[in-house]
Amino acid sequence: MKSARQVAFEALLKVHKDGAYSNLAVDSLLKENSNLDERDKAFVCNLVYGTLDRLILIDYNLGLYLNQPVRKLKPELHTILRMGAYQLLFMDKVPSRAAVNESVNLAKVNKSSFAASLVNAVLRRVSDNGLKLPEGDDKDPDFLAIKYSCPEWLISLWIDSYGYDNAIQLAEKSLEAPPLVIRVNTTKISVDDLIWKLAEEGVVSEKTDIAENALIISNTGSVEDLLAYKEGYFHAQDLASQLCCRALDPKEGETVFDLCSAPGGKAFTIAETMNNTGVVRAFDIYQSRVELIKSGAERLGLTNVYTYLSDASIYNENYGTADKILCDVPCSGLGIIRRKPEIRFKNKQDIDNLPDLQYRILCNAIRYLKDGGRLVYSTCTLNPKENEDVCERFLAEHPDFSSVRIMPEKTRYAEKDSLTLMTHLHSTDGFFIAVFCKDGGNK
């Protein structure tokens, strides 16, 4: 039987060596090690996500006591040291002795027995000396990068795009655990009735005025084990994504396309808003993800959701036309770092290449839109090159489309119709939403 620390080590190693998504690695390993109780599972999540959140700061502190650059450490050893340092510096309830000794034990059984004494020595010095920061101040991007474990290029991008104060608050919020938000399946149950059903399972629910039919829940344990989940009464979806669906404004009986749909949360909210009428066509480029949408719709009892294996950048005349189209394009994900902390370490060059793909998908999407139709372009990133710049190019090259100002009560960063949501201002994930109408359609 594997310990919680061993499971956390394996998840972090997958992220470090294989570039795995942390949430997928954690979910997979927790399913494989179902013997772990809820307390151990919570410890695994805390250790994995916390270590990834503070990675740059942790490596800086480790580097103070190593004779070689941390990047030259073998992945197994590097991962063990990172885990140990995180426990010592940020997990107050873990005794220092336990953090050091358990890290030494991990080294002995995970291809690092040769360095067991090194693990012991380095972590003891981390424990004795506590958290260290380099010399510098809060105006120095290099200092900020270490303090907030956020790459210098990203800190600079946010400062240039949104101003210093917003950039710092974005960096701070990226280190916080996100709330668990659900969207009530109103085709099956009311918000108040679901609150009672969840309470019967020990779950605490809180309404929010940010999005209707949304609940912030806690004290859940594994969500998939809840009877209310199995009965299809809700699906998990951040408030930003729910606002994105609100911006699309789907109506009963309409035909709606969700071009980059997986895992399907927005398609489900759209289908529920349409009261399970009309047609929601949900597309994705990978078969496994198409199956994920299909199974989610079946669990929720949504019979108006139809799934397709399709590349959103390539036109297919067989799909017909739509009244509304959601174009939630692949993006750098810089607005959801608190959910997937490894995103902050993406290759900047790969990010710089995304706008061309996003623009191709947007231009393809409009080929399916009826005259007078409505299209939402959205991302879960905070990067003007993927957001405002794509939209400005689109409007400049497509005079038959006009932009629509949505949710005027929300804060904006320029005199534009598009909306940028930020965690510290809107209590949502970082998100971008723009709405276009064809041929001067209804605004």
Low-pLDDT ranges? none
User: What share of residues are in beta strands?
Assistant: 5-15%
Helical fraction equals 40-55%
The oligomeric state of the chains shown is single chain
Structural class: alpha/beta
Q: What's the overall average pLDDT, rounded? A: 95
Molecular shape: globular
Per DSSP, the total helix count is: 19
Question: The biggest beta sheet, please?
Answer: 8 strands, mixed
Specify Rg, calculated over alpha carbons: 23 Å
What is the terminal separation in angstroms?
59 Å
> How many distinct beta strands?
12
What does this structure look like?
With 443 residues, the protein is α/β, with parallel strands linked by helices. It has 19 helices and twelve strands. The strands form two sheets. Strands 5, 6, 7, 8, 9, 10, 11 and 12 form an eight-stranded mixed β-sheet that branches. Strands 2-3-1-4 form a four-stranded antiparallel β-sheet, with helices on both faces. Helix 15 links the parallel strand 6 and strand 7. The longest helix has 16 residues. The N and C termini lie far apart (59 Å). The model has no long low-confidence stretch (mean pLDDT 95).
Looking at this protein, list some descriptive labels.
four-stranded antiparallel β-sheet, 443 residues, single chain, alpha/beta, eight-stranded mixed β-sheet, globular, 45% helix
